[in-house]
């Protein structure tokens, strides 16, 4: 009996050693399934408004001053990590008249499609309805630079 168990353990370790990419893929899949099951993070600070219609989007970006829009997906890990930092950023720039918005690309495909958003997150800066800057991917420094360059 001990020989059978020892043989099974040796075969298992041999399989793991011979298939590292398969094992990594399985762990990646499990991680993603778990991440998608978690609620999207929310914060109770900041000045970020959700946009849920094309009409609202058009109105928000055409107002005077600068508008920053975060195009995100709830299943996107970088989008999740950006939530608290983006909210703090909105507090910092609020005094300068910069408005912060967010658009869920899965719920607002007409907006994200019309703005040619192909990667999440994508941050766009608008001045009087015109896009004046775009940052694909989450980098706090890059988003701040994007805003500062336009200010």
3D architecture notes:
With 151 residues, the chain is α/β, with parallel strands linked by helices. It folds into two domains: 2-37; 48-150, 3-Layer(aba) Sandwich (Glutaredoxin), CATH 3.40.30.10. It has six helices and five strands; from the N terminus they run ααβαβαβαββα. The chain has helices at residues 2-18, 20-37, 54-62, 77-94, 109-114, 140-150, and strands at residues 48-50, 66-72, 99-104, 122-127, 130-136. Strands 1-3-2-4-5 form a five-stranded mixed β-sheet, sandwiched between helices. Helix 4 links the parallel strand 2 (66-72) and strand 3 (99-104). It is elongated and about 80 Å long. The N and C termini lie far apart (75 Å). InterPro entries: Thioredoxin-like_sf, Thioredoxin_domain. Keywords: Disulfide bond. Residues 29-151 form the Thioredoxin domain.
